[in-house]
Amino acid sequence: MYLNTEVISLTSGKKPDKYYAILEGAMKVFAENGFHKSQVSRIAKEAGVADGTIYLYFKKKEDILTSLFQEKLGELVEKFNDGLTEQMTAREALTKICQIHFSELEGNIHLAYVTQIELRQSDMALRQEIGLALKRYIILIENILERGKRDGSFRPDCDVKLVRLLLFGGMDEVVTSWLISGQKYSLTAQVGPTIDFFMKGIES
Known about the structure:
- This is TetR family transcriptional regulator.
- It comes from Paenibacillus ferrarius.
- Keywords: DNA-binding.
- Residues 39-58 bind DNA.
- The chain has a domain at 62-202: Tetracycline Repressor, domain 2.
- The protein has ten helices and no strands.
- The protein has helices spanning 5-8, 17-33, 40-47, 51-57, 61-83, 90-106, 109-118, 124-150, 160-180, 191-202.
- The chain starts with a helix and ends with a helix.
């Protein structure tokens, strides 16, 4: 199996509508102002709730950011779950992940800015919390690479733990370059070249 319960269970079930409204408002505010310059009052205004309502769901602003990553990465993993099948080759599965990753960020510019900027938090505790949310995505890539090694489509000496980080980092850098360019070209059009580059190094 490409996916397992550890990978899929990023979120803990349906929460109140205001919780999601706050996260959506925070995503826009963080994207426009950066995490550290964003005020809780501005997030509340964007979400259409009172300032005090924020603290019914989150103890501090950092909790909003980590919850945002948990929810959005959870949604991504669910899309992977829907898009991947056991009949796919390892290359096809990696291509599907890259396609979903790029298309989701291309379709949500606020999410793209938040993921590219706030993944690089300088605060160690915050980085660790975000890393926990990201870990399940990385594990999924690792599972696909391991399967490719087992079925012989990837080189037997492929260093899975290294390649999984390089692959995610490569996709991350492609998105960053797209944002810096002012989105002057199609991000999803970069899926083929991105996967081809890595496949040349790991395919048998």
